[in-house]
């Protein structure tokens, strides 16, 4: 009867209200008084109606009130993505209609705080950081220390989640200094600090803080469990955990919190080598997240939703599983849920930060498939392993690349155009945030703009997914083989894991997988070899050391398996991104003459790429091949590039070009003209960046930073970065180096020539002159890059010292192994002649056959 009364009141009660504003409040308060699935359904219906009716600010505020309470219920019932969407809509409504001017509604407490926490829980770390900093700024502005401290607590939680434990501790120490901090808040800060110290393996400090702080008994037990877990004392950790867990079970907790308890207990049982107990707890965790799931074992994909606790469950399931196929099924479920979570992420920073776990999981899948292949010799397993490797290659770069291709297919689709414009605007605002000298208000405004763009992108993504449900990043082994056959190329892709380096070799008729144990010795060999290029003297001071190391790396990375191929496409990974494979040695040698050394480049053309997707799919290019050159020269400065003038002259002699010299080589002219030319040549200084500044490239007046390149849209056929360190930047697993070169790739450039380290001005000029002499004839950067290095080594006027690989192997070409124009023309002539000869031969045979047939027929008639 009570339930019936409630429904009647809910449905009809608001009909007696005086106006829409009051109606909305009545509906909201009725829901708050009796929250359940049925009342939520009714609330959703009314909310939809209200959205079409509200006009005044008072009505908008009433709707914000309704939405924040609805979102809180969704949060409490573990419907995290729905909660985020509802909070975002409420926040957008509150800001757009400037509702703070008419009310003291606490948007921080009711919206921003829970939204920031939800972003953290769902791995949307960029939006979490923006949102938390946004309400810290508002709290400081209104001098609300309570919200300031809450902001510090949630910021510390975010840094802890990101594994930035030292930053978390600094945030906490700064928060201690704030006035009017409550006991509860101080205890909360102590707890996060204790957990951060444990994560940093500072158990003694953590134990001391745990003992001295007036934590509740169950909190002390939780910290003790974590300390014992860190120390490897699993039996004691389990004892403390059970005490902590039993206390938690006495309270009313969400299904998500309950699942977390079961997962943690399962992890302990796994460490104690009690797999059955671990599996039992994992099944309980699944049921906590899926109350209607009554079966044992793994649920179907259609029952899953974006929740990272599912990933923890399936990953541990896979670790326990002894059947390889079942283990792969578990990991595939983890990848599936990871994909659901990624659908809500809009910033590339968030996607990159979340890539680590996918990489670890991929390596385990490749391990399983490699071991299965050794037993079965089933080549299909190798391609599946290749897919796991490729799925975690340059994920962000691939995503924007495929969006661009999609837009080129449907250039008039307003949804796709709007999405691409928003992505560029997002990167533009991000580039403004990295600049120095911004005050807190400016940072907050930019953050607010980013949040608004993120919300729009999510809305567009949903609409685009409905309109274009197909997945455009699929590739097949057959497609790879066909393209490799056309390009007369072999592909080698490396996967640089935690325990192994995997080498995939794909030719037009085969696929091979090699596993290279990543032990201390090979790690040291790789880093030592890369360090040889730190300065020009390192190699020349000990040539024998270089030749030994260059041959050792050649063998260790199993590059000798490719010795029979003339054209090699390399997709490197991890530290291998910084290895110049052209400079490796195919054989041992005692010579100290660089021109006589058996370098890889002497009989193999090398091209690099970030992903097979970028290789197989081609972006539309400009029709012209005119060069737009930027030569700041920096005369009369310590950074003068005197020889770049000769470089410019050499290019003008062989290419149709427009050279912007000295004061004309400005960032403004670059932004204005770059998209109109087929080839961009930048002869300047560059920096790989540091912990504060990202990678950047110098123009005459100022620098362009990595994030600014992200906001450009270029269809340029080729970019040549005749500058130092353009391929160097902070290295992220799977995604590669955050370098200037990557910025151009993100902007849409498919073919790039860039450097891996600082290089001599004169040598650069000489190599560039040789490059363009060949490029003007071949129109293939792939061929011209190879040719320029060979000619450089053959040039007798260049001293042996300057023929060190330090000077010529710095430049690497990323892109497509295009056949030289002249070679292609000759090929078609020869092919055409062959076709004509074959036709003539067939006609001749046909004529002879006709004559013989006639003779036979005549003989038959005579007889």
UniProtKB/TrEMBL annotation:
InterPro entries xref list: CHAT_dom, TPR-like_helical_dom_sf, TPR_rpt
Keywords: Membrane, Transmembrane, Transmembrane helix
Pfam families linked to this entry: CHAT
Domain CHAT: residue ranges: 563-815
Transmembrane segments: 825-844
Lineage top rank: taxon: Bacteria
Protein name per the record: CHAT domain-containing protein
Organism: Algibacter agarivorans
Lineage start: Bacteria, Pseudomonadati, Bacteroidota, Flavobacteriia, Flavobacteriales
């Amino acid at each position: 009867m009570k339930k019936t009364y409630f429904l009647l009141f809910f449905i009809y009660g608001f009909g007696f209200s005086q106006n829409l504003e009051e109606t909305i409040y009545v509906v909201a308060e009725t829901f708050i008084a009796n929250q359940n699935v049925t009342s939520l359904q009714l609330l959703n219906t009314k909310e939809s109606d209200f959205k079409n009716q509200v006009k005044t600010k008072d009505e908008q505020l009433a709707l914000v009130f309704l939405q924040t309470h609805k979102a809180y219920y969704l949060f409490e019932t573990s419907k995290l993505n729905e909660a985020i969407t509802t909070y975002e809509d409420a926040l957008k409504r509150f800001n757009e209609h400037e509702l703070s001017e008419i009310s003291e509604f606490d948007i921080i407490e009711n919206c921003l705080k829970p939204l920031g926490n939800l972003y953290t829980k769902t791995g949307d770390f960029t939006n979490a950081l923006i949102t938390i900093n946004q309400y810290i700024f508002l709290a400081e502005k209104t001098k609300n220390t309570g919200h300031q401290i809450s902001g510090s607590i949630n910021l510390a939680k975010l840094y802890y989640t990101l594994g930035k434990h030292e930053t978390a501790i600094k945030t906490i120490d700064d928060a201690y200094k704030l006035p009017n901090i409550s006991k509860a808040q101080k205890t909360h800060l102590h707890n996060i600090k204790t957990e951060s110290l444990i994560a940093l393996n500072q158990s003694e400090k953590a134990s001391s803080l745990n003992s001295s702080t007036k934590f509740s008994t169950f909190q002390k037990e939780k910290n003790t469990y974590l300390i014992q877990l860190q120390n490897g004392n699993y039996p004691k950790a389990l004892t403390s955990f059970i005490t902590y867990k039993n206390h938690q079970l006495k309270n009313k907790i969400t299904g998500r919190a309950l699942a977390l308890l079961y997962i943690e207990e399962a992890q302990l049982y796994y460490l104690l080598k009690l797999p059955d107990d671990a599996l039992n707890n994992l099944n309980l965790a699944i049921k906590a997240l899926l109350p209607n799931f009554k079966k044992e074992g793994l649920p179907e994909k259609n029952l899953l939703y974006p929740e990272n606790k599912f990933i923890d469950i399936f990953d541990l399931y896979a670790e326990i599983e002894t059947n390889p196929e079942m283990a792969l099924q578990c990991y595939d479920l983890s990848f599936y849920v990871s994909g659901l979570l990624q659908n809500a992420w809009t910033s590339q920073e968030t996607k990159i930060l979340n890539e680590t776990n996918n990489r670890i999981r991929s390596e385990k899948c490749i391990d399983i498939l490699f071991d299965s292949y050794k037993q079965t010799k089933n080549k299909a397993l190798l391609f599946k392993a290749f897919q796991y490797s490729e799925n975690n290659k340059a994920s962000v770069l691939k995503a924007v690349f495929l969006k661009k291709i999609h837009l080129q297919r449907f250039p008039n689709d307003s949804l796709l155009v709007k999405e691409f414009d928003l992505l560029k605007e997002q990167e533009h605002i991000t580039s403004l945030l990295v600049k120095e000298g911004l005050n807190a208000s400016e940072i907050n405004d930019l953050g607010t703009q980013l949040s608004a763009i993120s919300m729009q992108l999510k809305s567009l993504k949903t609409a685009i997914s409905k309109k274009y449900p197909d997945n455009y990043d699929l590739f097949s082994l057959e497609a790879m083989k066909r393209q490799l056959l056309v390009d007369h190329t072999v592909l080698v892709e490396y996967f640089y894991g935690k325990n192994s380096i995997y080498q995939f070799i794909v030719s037009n008729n085969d696929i091979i997988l090699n596993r290279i144990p990543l032990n201390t010795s090979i790690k040291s060999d790789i880093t030592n070899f890369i360090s040889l290029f730190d300065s020009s003297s390192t190699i020349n001071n000990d040539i024998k050391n270089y030749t030994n190391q260059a041959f050792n790396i050649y063998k260790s990375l199993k590059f000798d398996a490719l010795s029979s191929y003339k054209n090699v496409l390399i997709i490197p990974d991890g530290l291998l991104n910084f290895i110049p494979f052209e400079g490796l040695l195919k054989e041992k040698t005692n010579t100290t003459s660089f021109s006589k050394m058996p370098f890889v480049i002497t009989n193999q053309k090398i091209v690099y790429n970030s992903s097979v997707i970028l290789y197989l799919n081609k972006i539309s290019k400009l029709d012209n091949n005119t060069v737009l050159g930027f030569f700041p020269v920096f005369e009369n400065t310590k950074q003068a590039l005197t020889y770049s003038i000769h470089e410019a002259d050499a290019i003008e002699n062989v290419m149709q070009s427009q050279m912007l010299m000295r004061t004309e080589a400005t960032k403004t002219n670059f932004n204005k003209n770059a998209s109109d030319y087929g080839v961009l040549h930048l002869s300047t200084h560059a920096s790989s960046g540091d912990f504060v500044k990202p990678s950047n490239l110098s123009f005459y007046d100022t620098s362009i930073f990595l994030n600014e390149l992200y906001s450009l849209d270029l269809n340029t056929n080729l970019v040549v970065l005749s500058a130092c360190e353009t391929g160097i930047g902070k290295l992220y697993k799977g995604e590669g180096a955050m370098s200037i070169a990557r910025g151009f790739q993100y902007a849409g450039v498919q073919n790039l020539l860039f450097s891996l380290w600082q290089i001599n001005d004169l040598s650069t000029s000489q190599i560039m002159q040789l490059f363009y002499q060949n490029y003007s004839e071949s129109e293939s950067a792939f061929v011209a890059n190879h040719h320029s290095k060979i000619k450089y080594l053959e040039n007798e006027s260049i001293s042996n010292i300057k023929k060190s690989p330090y000077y010529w192997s710095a430049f690497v070409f990323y892109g497509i192994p295009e056949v030289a124009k002249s070679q292609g023309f000759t090929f078609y002539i020869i092919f055409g002649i062959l076709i004509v000869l074959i036709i003539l031969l067939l006609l001749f045979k046909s004529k002879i056959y006709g004559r013989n047939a006639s003779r036979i027929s005549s003989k038959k008639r005579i007889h």
